[in-house]
Every structure is written in C-alpha cells, then in structure tokens.
Write the structure tokens for this entry.
Amino acid sequence: MAAVGAISVPFWISTSTPTKIIASNTKSRISYPFKLSRNGIYPLSTFEKNGQHEQNFTLKAASSSSVGSAEYTEEPATKVKFQRSLSLPGCSNLLSLLGTGYREKVFAIIGVKVYAAGLYVNDSVFSRLDAWQGHSAADIQQDPSLFNKIFEADLEKSLLIVLVRDIDGKTFWDALDEAISPRIKSPTADDKSALSTFRGVFQGKPLKKETSIFLTWVDPTKMLVSLSFDGMPSSVDATIESPNVASALFDVFLGGDPVSPSLKGSVAKGLEATLK
C-alpha cells in the first residue's frame, strides 16, 4: 500500500557546501533514485525535466527521525501508512496523528476491511486535557467526557479515511449516512441542507482503492470535506456548517458505539502516551 500524503526517502546525500548537479534526459550525472518530502529541498521531478538543466542547492544530512518509517505510522490490519503530521487546505495549523484504525463490514459472516482511518489533532489540545494525566488507555477509552472535550475544543482536527478497496460514492455515503442520521434526533433545515451538501461530495464518483477522504473539523460547528485520488488534497470540496452534523460525525468514530473500535482504541493509547 502506498504511503498517504508523503514520499519515501530511500537515499540521502550529505554535504556541507552548496552543490551543483547537472542532469540531462539522456545522460544524468547522478542516478540516485531518491525523493524528498514536501518539506524537503527538491523532489525527484527537479531532475526529470526534458533537456539538460542544472540546479544549485545545498543538500542536508537527514537525521534518523526524519527518514523511513519515522515519518509514518502503519495501520497494522490494512498496512496503510499514515504521515505523522499533515498540513491541510483550510487549516491554519499543522495537525499531528493521534491514532489509526480500520473499518470492517460483514458480508455473509465474512469480515471485509473497507478503509483505514487516522485521527489528526492540533497539539494545543493536549494542554486542555491535564485532568486525564496518568490515566490508562482503558480508562480513557471509557470516558466520554475526554472525547467531548477534544471535540468541543475550538481547535482543528481531521479524520483521514483511506479506502482499501474500490467502492462507488453512493455506497460509501449510504453507509456513512446510516451511521450519522440516527445520531441527529430532530434534524433542522440546516442539518438537512448540510447532509445534502455532504452527500453531493460522493454522489456519482467511483472511489478507487487508495482514495483519501479528509473530514476536517475547523471548529465544533464547521467541517471541511476534501477528496484526493492521488495523495494530499489541493482544495476543499465542501463546507458543512451544522453543529449537529459535525458532532454526529465525531460520535460515529469516537463516541460510545464507534464504527471503528480499533481507531478509538488506538487514539486512547496515543492519549495515554501523550498525557503521561
């Protein structure tokens, strides 16, 4: 499974002085097949332009914490790799991965994995969780007040869903709506409009394996939806403005009866480690 929103780093060069590299589409002076992350200096595509060209830059040595598996967390059941931090459209802050899990549907008594999911949060939220310092993951997982505190914090957080099989957009939305709608007891006109907008993002779209769906709470009343068929999203596809819909979606994944118990369990372990 390819990494999501990130690029692998199989090779690094170290030098302390500016270095000139000259390459051509017929005979390259260098042939190291390396790529740098979006925060790196130059990606491989710099050397892939047609015709001869040259580029001056300084290559820096990579620390062990910035290469290989250190940049990602792998969801063990699906093998999907999640980047440990994300910068998303519509967000003003970098978000950090707190936990991962997967969603499984049962067909004819056989469990079929549909997607992997990762929860990202603004690190500032941890300063608001002092009351849970030293608590075990088991205690955290059973305490709805902690998850309510995270949701109610006026800080950005995002759920990244990565499909592990092909599915059409209508089927995906129907399954999501089946979980969201019962959590909204008396939907208002704004709630119905928000759900219609939400549904429109997926209708008529074939969602292929490795499609990434970003559901980002800007605050407790507003949610951004972005789809990407090739890594990180470049824009926001829809804005959902409904406190009830935003709250219901959070509850779908992190409430008392989550659709992905593995995600909530992983998030609880992440909180335990962070709040030591």
User: Anything to note?
Assistant: The radius of gyration is 21 Å.
